[in-house]
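Design review, sub-item: ligand-bound model
Attendees: FS, YL, KQ
YL presented the inputs for the pyridoxal-5'-phosphate complex:
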Amino acid sequence: MRYLSTRGAAPVLDFRGATLAGLASDGGLYIPEAWPTLGAEAIADLAGLSYAETATRVMLPFIGDALSEDELRALCEQAYGRFSHAAVTPLVQLDHDQWLLELFHGPTLAFKDVALQLLGLLFERFLTGTDKRLTIVGATSGDTGSAAIDAVAGREGIDIFMLHPAGRVSDVQRRQMTTVLSPNVHNIAIDGDFDQAQALVKTMFATPALADRFALSAVNSINWARLMAQVVYYFYAAVRLGAPGRAVAFSVPTGNFGDVFAGYVASRMGLPVAQLVVATNVNDILHRALSAGDYSKGVVAQTATPSMDIQVSSNFERLLFDLGGRDGSALAAQMAGFEASGAMRLTNAQREGAAPLFASARVDADDMALAMRWACEHAGQVIDPHTAIALSAARALDLAADVPVVTLATAHPAKFRDAVERATGMRPPLPARIGDLFEREERYVTLPATLAAVGDYVAQHAHPSA
Ligand SMILES: *Cc1c(COP(=O)(O)O)cnc(C)c1O
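KQ shared the predicted structure:
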């Protein structure tokens, strides 16, 4: 399998190359040259398989000869063996046609573990036996940081620098990052918001003195391997609800458009997906883009769902590329316009391509709280605020009666205890495995949101690559 940049001007890479590179050198994102498909029979054959085996079958076509099937299976078993539920991503029924897909049983209690536990192993596997090192640089609005740090802490050949917006992630989220004291882990609090942190990361990648010398790599959802790992649970859930014989709808709490893009990939691979609901909070750039063709950024509003407080959704570019005829130079021009003015219109091809599959909804704080209460009162389920945004959107959908609707439950409610308590009166306890989080020692530095400050810090603490 070969991987192309959405902006058409970066080298074409194989799976290994695309995994290690993250962002493409022309500023674009890597995407497979063509979508592999699983026929109805291959999908039916997934029934009853373990999560790790499902993952092996769904991901194998993307890997090419970078790994053998047995090597891939061993990595999946290792990655998903660390989850606290035997199903890895269990389904929970809420009412006769509404379901939750619990994606938060990994080590850091958020869905990002599903992809990052595998990515950490892929990095290590691809670096072993070379004299190359990798310097992971990322920006997090909360959950990516802790999941990435957990996935690479103590691994040979890798340093990780994680930027988070100071004071804008929950205490649990911050402590899950800053209490990991392995020497290869570097936490940086940025005086600024998430978009500034993400922009700094992009600038570092475009600075050869850093990017080339330290072999910078990304773990943000711009890394293709992460998206690939997320495709798996769409298959796993849909097969359990009747696919390929029955179509399933998914409602996805959306920020950077990675999780819901994985649902789009599942659909392109042949999974019968009735609808993908892009649920946003009041930071609704994606809702405006999908409902009115208007992709224009506003000012980020802070909400109870920090992982969705985003005004620029990196992965949306992959959808625009795929729907816009896969024309790299046209997309590069469209994105350059957006980067210059902060706004762009979707083309007719992009809008018409998205319309049959995607629906979108903007959910405010009141409707989020209502959804949390509804889940408690009607199904005895305490859900986190991000999940509640998507559940609210799912319940407002008007679909054929026989279509099950699956809401992706992206974080454990204990990660957002204050918001859960405000809405439901219940304070979810921290699961035993992180019960002592508030007693652990923290380590991080606070830096201004400038390339000079952050670039210097990275240059002083990272290890040059051969
Ligand atoms: C990251 C995250 C999201 C948003 O996912 P994207 O792939 O960025 O759209 C939603 N909920 C939680 C809890 C998250 O951590």
